[in-house]
Design goal:
Layout lengths: L1 E5 L2 E5 L5 E3 H4 L15 H8 L16 E2 L8 E4 L4 H6 L11 E3 L5 E2 L2 E6 L5 E2 L2 E7 L9 H4 L3 E8 L2 E2 H4 L7 H4 L6 E8 L11 E6 L2 E7 L7 H9 L9 E3 L21 E6 L3 E9 L21
Parallel strand pairs: 5-16, 7-13, 8-18
Antiparallel strand pairs: 1-2, 1-4, 1-13, 2-3, 5-6, 9-12, 10-11, 10-16, 11-13, 14-15, 14-17, 17-18
């Protein structure tokens, strides 16, 4: 199953690529928005699996897609979860739960967006597999049962401003990674059963067409199940929460000299079996905003 957030409405992406409006197809039982589906995930998925694989739907314009989980209670992001990325960052590979930091919800966007570069910053890329929680945890979850708590997977970018991140004696991970637009996700949520191997997915990130990151989630030091198991032993996870699982090597900070994103560049982030993100970066105006000509138009209204 593929679930998307189209103009703030929950839609299923049919095999023919068209969108089936959940609220209409369910006679009002589910939807109209995506947020309300996650607390009822098991019930919703059982209903969705009874729908025909193809149907009369509407074409999907990626520009109109929002985050697959637009209002998570928590965005939890792991660092140094690939050995090669830990090495390029100057750290030993973690032997226990990798370092964890928040990305604040105000940084969340959909798969196609314009991102304003912080003035005087050094903005970097980090492609990541993102797991979306579909069933709450109450205490530690065994690894063998951890995937049962996952609604699905999506593509994420942990965009990071290194100047802010390292501006204080103790790194400001949360702030450096939470500027507006610094957490694009999408293009949709894909349930694990749709993937040939949920634990082995190729990742690729390009900047203006040049490959800057390539990796595979099979190389995660702590896979999705281990992360959820260990994390749930410390904090509660809620339906709709996002877990950024870490990035492979190839970030700009790890290069000699460092390489950072500049105005006008396009970042494309792709994960096998899921889809891609596309971000265009612009310089801020004197007020720290995107130039008016490059601000996205309001989404069109959709009749309910």
């Amino acid at each position: 199953m593929r679930l998307a957030n189209l103009d703030d409405r929950a839609v299923l992406v049919a095999a023919d690529g068209l969108a089936i409006d959940v609220h209409r197809a369910s006679g009002g039982r589910f939807g109209p928005d995506v947020v309300g589906l996650y607390p009822r995930w098991d019930e919703f998925r059982a209903w969705a699996e009874q729908l025909p694989a193809d149907g009369s739907g509407a074409p999907i314009d990626p520009v109109r897609l929002g985050p697959p989980s637009p209002a998570p209670r928590q965005i939890l992001a792991f660092g140094l979860n690939y050995a090669d990325h830990a090495a390029e960052s100057g750290f030993a590979a973690p032997q226990v739960l990798p370092p964890l930091f928040p990305k604040f919800v105000s940084s969340l966007t959909g798969p196609v967006s314009t991102v304003v570069l912080p003035a005087g910053g050094d903005t970097d890329w980090e492609i990541e597999l993102v797991a979306v929680i579909g069933r709450a945890t109450t205490g530690r979850v065994a690894q063998a049962a951890a995937w049962d708590h996952v609604a699905g997977l999506t593509v994420g970018q942990d965009i990071s401003d290194r100047a802010t991140q390292f501006s204080t004696p103790a790194p400001q991970f949360g702030l450096g990674k939470s500027f507006p637009g610094f957490a694009p996700t999408g293009p949709w949520l894909v349930t694990p059963d749709e993937l040939s191997d949920r634990d082995s997915l190729a990742l690729q990130c390009t900047l203006d067409g040049q490959i800057v990151q390539e990796g595979n989630t099979k190389d995660l030091l702590f896979g999705v199940a281990r992360l959820i198991s260990d994390l749930s032993g410390i904090i509660a996870l809620h339906p709709g929460d996002l877990i950024f699982t870490g990035t492979p090597e190839g970030v700009g900070l790890g290069r000699t000299p460092p390489l950072y994103i500049r105005p006008g560049q396009e970042l494309v982030s792709t994960i096998e079996g899921i889809g891609e993100l596309r971000q265009i970066f612009v310089a801020a105006d004197e007020h720290g905003h995107a130039p008016r000509s490059q601000r996205p138009a309001p989404a069109p209204e959709v009749a309910s």
